[in-house]
Known about the structure:
The chain is mostly helical. The chain contains five helices and no strands.
Amino acid sequence: MHRAATAHDPSYQARQSKIAVGSGGPLGVGLMxxxxxxxxxxxxxxxxxxxxxxEELGLIGTTAILAGFLxxxxxxxxxxxxxxxxxxxxxxxxxxxxxxxxxxxxMSVVLDIAPTKGIPLPMISSGGSSLFSTxxxxxxxxxxxxxxx
Length: 149
């Protein structure tokens, strides 16, 4: 027997986010044209913003976000290898891992690979405290890079 998805269903958000990402296709439905965020996906502006990007900007938009976090990972690892002291290396790996792992967990939740955790997508999800801490962390990485020579 097939049961209709309701907002009280524990897997409702994950199901709706997969629908949003899938309906975007390769190019998306257009910026500000997504329907899932208005009618079906609760809290789309916070933890499930990646699904909105997938619906509106498609595979190209989600790939661009993924590429941005991979660039942060690549540059952070370069800092780990070039840091002049152990403190700089540990600081760079810790900050890089914190940002990138948080992003990958959020993307995994949106794609229903991992259970819902309530972790925002760094620099993209709505919320000032997450943005502030992420930008502060990136500033620390820049400082390590400045001292790396």
